[in-house]
Amino acid sequence: MKGTIERMQEDAREVTGSPSKAAKLAESVLRLTSSGKYAGQLTALKHKILSLARMVKCYSRREYLDIPWQTILLVTAALIYVVSPLDAIADFLPVMGFTDDTAVILAVFSSVSKDVERFLAWEAAREKTPPEETGSC
What we know:
137 residues
């Protein structure tokens, strides 16, 4: 178990340090939450998951840095866990496959909710700014 956690932390550091890897993670999250195969199981969490993915993407591009490093590593590790097909309960198992993913996302979202609220406020304010002045995450 300790090796798994350390590996996830290292993967999270790698993703947050690379805009292209963060973009790939965000794309994987979007595909997962939009795919007909799993969309039903993740419908209730879709907004939360996509918010976390955008936060990681913006952080990796150094566009949004007002976030503790512990939060960004925890969120990134959780997203990697969710998109991984082989986690504690394999996602291909009907109904049960997303139970662990749901628990992970809800736990992480709950523990970093204030940081997510700040990110969403930043994102909303940014959307009011003309696109040529902001660039996009």
